[in-house]
Design brief:
By secondary structure, this protein is of the alpha/beta class. The chain has 2 domains: 3-14 and 102-214, Rossmann fold, CATH 3.40.50; 15-99. The chain has 10 helices and 5 strands; from the N terminus they run E-H-H-H-H-H-E-H-E-H-H-E-H-E-H. It has helices spanning 15-29, 36-54, 60-71, 83-99, 107-116, 129-138, 151-154, 161-171, 185-194, 210-214; strands at residues 3-6, 120-125, 147-150, 178-182, 198-201. It has a 5-stranded parallel beta sheet with strand order 3-2-1-4-5, sandwiched between helices. Strand 2 (120-125), helix 6 and strand 3 form a beta-alpha-beta unit. Its cofactor is Mg(2+). Keywords: Hydrolase, Magnesium. One of its GO terms (molecular function) is hydrolase activity.
């Protein structure tokens, strides 16, 4: 192997924990009471609207507004009639979310092992370029990453084979000498293998760690 490509959200960056912490601070500020059911509904709404952005149906800001239009009624909060008002409310969530950004404890050690192996290090993520780079900087990993490719910068998203191939090209390494690691079996493993990469599934629920997969 000459390079490793990591997924970002829920692989290096603990997106789920950051969102949960953010919702615990944000929902009460809107007069709502957070429950396990509401948490689950938030993530369902997030996935549905985010995929609409990846498909080109919504803008990135549009999928944020779409999330609020679905979620606010669940906490008995009136849905604003204008985009500007929706954006103001979402900015409140973002403030809480960004304040809770954190890397998984094994993230930096895994990148350091990859670097000690002499490997090029890339990140391939379905997300906005500005926000995903900001996450890497905030959680202290940007200095160890050679290339960051996002669905926005590539104009194609996982699981399209072109996403993996263009990331390998940016790293200057052939797919056959590259390993992909991520938490999503379909997007980070099966599709990467189809594109000609080696790929490992980071199944944290089963106790798998990044260090196990990178060593």
């Amino acid at each position: 192997m000459k390079a490793v490509i990591f997924d970002l959200d829920n692989t290096l960056f603990d997106h789920t924990a950051s969102v949960i912490t953010a919702l615990h601070g944000w929902v009460p500020s809107l007069g709502g009471t957070l429950s396990d059911e509401l948490l689950a509904q938030w993530f369902e709404i997030e996935d549905r609207n985010f995929n609409q952005w990846l498909a080109g149906v919504l803008t990135h800001q549009g999928q944020r507004r779409g999330r609020l239009r679905e979620f606010l009624p669940l906490i008995d909060h009136p849905v604003p009639s204008t985009d500007a008002e929706l954006d103001t409310i979402f900015a409140g969530f973002l403030q809480h979310y960004e304040a809770s950004w954190a890397a998984f404890p094994d993230a930096r050690p895994a990148l350091e092992v990859a670097r000690s192996n002499g490997w090029r290090i890339g990140v391939l993520t379905n997300g906005s370029t500005t926000q995903q780079n900001a996450k890497l900087a905030a959680i202290g990993l940007a200095d160890l990453v050679d290339v960051v490719c996002t669905s926005e910068s590539l104009s194609v998203s996982k699981p399209d084979s072109a996403a993996y191939l263009m990331t390998c090209q940016a790293l200057g390494v052939e797919p056959s000498y590259t390993v992909m690691i991520g938490d999503n079996l379909e997007l980070d493993v099966l599709a990467a293998r189809k594109a000609g990469l080696t790929a490992h599934h980071l199944d944290r629920a089963a106790g798998i760690t990044l260090l196990e997969l990178i060593s």
